[in-house]
User: What shape does this take?
Amino acid sequence: MMTTLHRHRAVLAPALTLFAMLLLAILIYLPVQAQRDKYERAIASQNPRIERLLGLRDAAPRIVEQTVQARQLVNTLAYPSDADANRLNNELPNRLRQLAQQSGLTLGAMRPLPTRNENGLDILLVNLSLQGELTQFQNFLVSLEQPPRLWVDSLSIRRQMSGQDARQTLTIDMNLAALRRTDP
Assistant: This one.
């Protein structure tokens, strides 16, 4: 047996060396490939997030433009955040008194209600008692749409009984809300 090995040692030595190197390469390649597969799976799992971020980056100019438009719209619907709440509580009754007079309604009573905060807005509430005709009330509601807009929070209308020839008079009890932004 030794003689056979000695005779073929010129071929066996390089073959065994090649086999050992191949085995060593396989033992190194398998863990490296497993780690590479793990990294590729991690990267592939992050692709949707990366795509969303790239989409947001591409959409950034449109988002900024729409944000500016939304803020401009809010400015027509609400008082700005830097408006003093005490000043608004004084200004709001004066504005409502003026709108009621311009519409031809008689203002019976007006009282402020507690302010509440919802969705980044302070809601300043005022209770009004008005009397007048239906067309006057319609004019009053239209005048509430002047910026910054006033909103009807609650409304109760009663018809006053009068003579048959007299015009129909309404007694209106309503809560109006003025919005003030709390974010700058």
Summary: The mean pLDDT is 86.
